[in-house]
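Our consortium's second objective concerns turning raw sequence data into structural hypotheses that experimental partners can test. To show how far this objective has progressed, the report includes one record in full. It was chosen at random from the queue rather than selected for favorable results. The single chain below, 110 residues long, was entered without modification.
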Amino acid sequence: MDLQDQLKNLFPDHIVSNEPEEVQEDEHVLFIQKEPMICKYEKRKGKPTTIIEGYEGSDEDFKLLAKEIKTKLSVGGSFKDDSIIIQGDYRDKIMEILKIKGFKVKRVGG
């Protein structure tokens, strides 16, 4: 008994439609700001961290940006108090990612 037969047994009144489903995908555009974002290096509890601050858009956009940076760099991090905290010293790589996206970035510290 294949899957189609099982579905017919479970839902006898269902009529199969061969029309493809329409899926609308909205491309999300990030807010471009006037002031540069600050990318700084700190040591917290003896471990290096990169902190990104100064985003003027919505928190949801900033969270999406944090997730994208973490996945591109394959590192851990978090979003707290309107700043992105990335584990490790990745200032140069983060600045390149942000410049490609169209942000102005300022390097602070070390």
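The partners drew two points from this record. The chain has a mean pLDDT of 84. The first helix runs from residue 3 to 10. Both points have been shared with the crystallography group to help prioritize constructs.
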